[in-house]
Amino acid sequence: MNSNITISGWDVMDEAHRVLRATVAGVSAGDWDRPTPCAEWTVTQVLQHAAGDQLGYAAAITGEGGPTENPFAPSGRLTEDPMDFLNPTLNAAAAAWATVGKDVETALTPLPLGPLPTWVGSGAAALDAAVHAWDIAVATGQPSPLTDELAASLMKVALEMVEPLRAFAFAPAIAPEPTDTDAAALLKFLGRRPDWAA
């Protein structure tokens, strides 16, 4: 295991961070300006947004170290290697959540929902990382990082916190089909088309 990777101890978060790292590492040099499922955002902007969100989750726990730029207005310009940019943000979130015991009932997040059950709060950070990994993957021709196992875990989280945030952070849900995989069902619930293509 890479000694530069911080583990939170929250399994779904650690897996979501793993897939985001792997996806960003798989982006070719010429693909950073490609369009993504996040309307009007390039791959670079999705990376900036995802990284800023993780800092937001970290800061909600620690009270310090939040994003220095607005994650909802990413510039689309990086001045450093993408992995060097991403890793500290994921490590900050993981380190913050590593201080939250499984026996703690609620935790703060940057979401405007007040304190959430800890499994939902840590899962919300994981949902953010994993779905933006999917955005980057499909935009750059990589396989989907959303396994059905990961998606099923994230759907439990999404059902607890997405609806109040529909107008703020999520598009209207797309009607599911009986043949949908767990990954497709999650993406549709979040307002994304599983068959999206640039």
Automatic annotation (TrEMBL):
Annotated GO MF terms: metal ion binding
Gene3D superfamilies in alphabetical order: dinb family like domain (1.20.120.450)
Domain Mycothiol-dependent maleylpyruvate isomerase metal-binding: 14-137
Domain of life: Bacteria
Pfam families tied to this protein: MDMPI_N
The protein's name: Uncharacterized protein (TIGR03086 family)
